[in-house]
Amino acid sequence: MLKFFSRIGRLKAERRKGWVQKLRVKDAESVADHSFRVALMSMVYSDLKGLDTARVMKIALLHDLPEALVGDSMPGELPRRAKLVKERAALARLLKGFSSQLRSEYKDLWEEYVKGSTPEADLVKQVDKLELILQAREYALRGYDADVANEFVESARSKIRDADLLEIL
Q1: How far apart are CA 160 and CA 122, in angstroms?
Q2: Are 132 and 120 in contact (CB under 8 A)?
Q3: Which residues of 106-117 are buried (b: 16+ CB within 10 A; e: fewer)?
Q4: Half-sphere exposure of 154 (CA within 13 A, CB side)
Q5: 72-77 contacts: CB < 8 A, separation 24 or more?
Q6: What are the distances in angstroms from CA 74 to CA 6, 84, 86?
């Protein structure tokens, strides 16, 4: 477990690549920062919608876990299939010391997120995009290039379909 906890600690230092490379943010949020707000937002909306909030929380906390080993990437940087292969392998390495039951559960929850195959996973996917939009707007308000920040907003906006989440937009 210590090896796992140490490895996932890397998410605290892994800066979100798009903010660094495209928006030139010096103190860009980390993957852990992003995942924390995604988890809290997902928890609130899951409770409001009567979904399985424990499942939602697990999905939200696991959704970017492979980035502890492979780092963050920007859309289009890798072909989607190659990115998934890389992330699946990283997740398997991260979960190696877990019992087969727990390893299977976490892997299945991560796959559920990737596919958006349940209402819980779909909610987290949409909240993930909404969190990105909130962060882009916060950077714009801090004086970073609003046009570039808006590119992030526009790329994420089309992936949000939930009426409650759209209301925030």
Answers
A1: 10
A2: no
A3: bbebbebbeeee
A4: 6
A5: 72/14, 72/15, 72/16, 72/17, 72/18, 72/31, 73/17, 74/17, 74/18, 74/21, 74/22, 75/155, 77/17
A6: 24, 13, 14
- Residue from 141, 138, 149, 128 nearest 41 by CA: 128
Collect all residues with Cβ–Cβ distance below 8 Å to 166 and sequence separation of at least 6.
160
- The one-digit pLDDT tens for each residue of the chain (169 residues) are 999 999 999 999 999 999 999 999 999 999 999 999 999 999 999 999 999 999 999 999 999 999 999 999 888 888 989 999 999 999 999 999 999 999 999 999 999 999 999 999 999 999 999 999 999 999 999 999 999 999 989 989 999 999 999 998 8
What pTM was estimated for this model as a whole? 0.94
Which residues are CB-contacts of 48 (< 8 A; sequence separation ≥ 6)? 164
Measured from the Cβ of residue 157, the count of other Cβ atoms closer than 10 Å reads 15
Q: 29 vs 2, 11, 18, 26, 121, CA distance in Å?
A: 25, 10, 10, 9, 23
* DSSP structural state of residue 28: P
In Å, how far are 4, 14, 87, 98, 117 from 1, measured between CA atoms? 5, 21, 20, 8, 29
State the Cα–Cα distance between residues 48 and 33, nearest whole angstrom: 23
